[in-house]
Amino acid sequence: MIPSKSHFFFFIIVLFSTLQGFYFHSLGVAPFTLLSVLMVFVTFSLFKSYDVISNISINELFVFLFYSLIFFFSVIAVLYHGDEPDLKRILAFFVVLIFSFLLPPLLKFIDLELVLKFTLIFHFSYFYLQFILYYIFGLDLDIVGFFTGISQKGWGGSFYIEGIGHIRRLGGLFNEPGTYSTFIAPLTAFFLNFYTKSSSNKIVVYLSLLSLFLTLSTFGFLFAVFISIFIVVFFKGKEIFFVTFVVSLSFILTVPYLIYRFFVRREDGLDTGLGFREVFLKELYVFTSDSIYNFLLGTGMLQPDLTDKVNLIASVNDSSLLLALMLNSGVFLTSFFFIFVILYTILKKDLISLLVFFILFASKVSIFYVFFPLILSLIFFDKRKSSFFYNKRF
After folding, report:
1. CA-to-CA distance for 332 and 32, rounded, in angstroms?
2. DSSP classification of residue 363
3. 343 contact partners, CB below 8 Å, separation of at least 6
4. What share of the chain is helix, strand, coil (3-state, %, to 5)?
5. pLDDT digits (tens, 9 = 90+) for 137-151
6. Whole-prediction pTM value?
């Protein structure tokens, strides 16, 4: 169990920051994520006697500086393009700026192993409940749809397995399987810091990995493969057997579906999910090469309507955060930050954080999700300052 009030508070903060799937379109907000921001203030007050503010280090300000630069570039972009700033976007920037400033100094007081372990268990437990209810009892459990009124996107088209029936792609407590992978994969990767501490930690990693495979999402498959390879290469030992077992078990269902999705559907002239990415790459190239200002500033992030600049057929972030940032914040700033983080993690010899970073920027997470500054804060977190942190190898 969570051993103290402060650790329980942070567990709730992390859990709520992941509940982006509970987005109410009529209100335009995801209430649980806003509650997580509010609870950061509450948690901050618990540590007032530690004089947190005066002891903030430079690496604890990196995430805040990242958001500040993006906001600055977005203001210039708005002026250059002649756009009308969107009030909701301005408020969103305000929320993530506050969150990215207050959160990093708190990490050194938190037992991250325990908090992340409970968060992963919470999510994959619901995922497996969904899986069992559907594939064994034929019941479709969708709590997200029940509360938001919008059903999860998950049906596997006409893909059918004899003895099982039509495939249902499950998304846990998220709106669709790819989003489940977007949130669970970075948490699982970072939890590798505690992988060797106990057998239960290894089991949590294996069950998280298996759930990523079983989402049958392309992101889930790729992220699970990356994490599995990392475990085999850097942890070795008996891990090779267990990871091979988990991967082999999941491939029985995952690989046939991916073959169906990307080859069979293409032959039948149906959408495979690659078409909108091809369109995005083309539009990104045309827009950023049109002028030096577009290359440097991008479209800006204070106006979500981009129809007068690019012609996209899907959400901006669906093609990956890296490409979305190149379009929204310019190639220069995005490339600078990307290279900076890679060099930062390499110089620190923090290969786990490097893995987390690649997964994060390959995913379709939005920088306006409070989950994003949380994961970035973990990447820049100085483990030497934490009395709870355990990491033998990295």
Report:
1. 34
2. S
3. none
4. 70, 5, 30
5. 888 889 998 888 888
6. 0.90
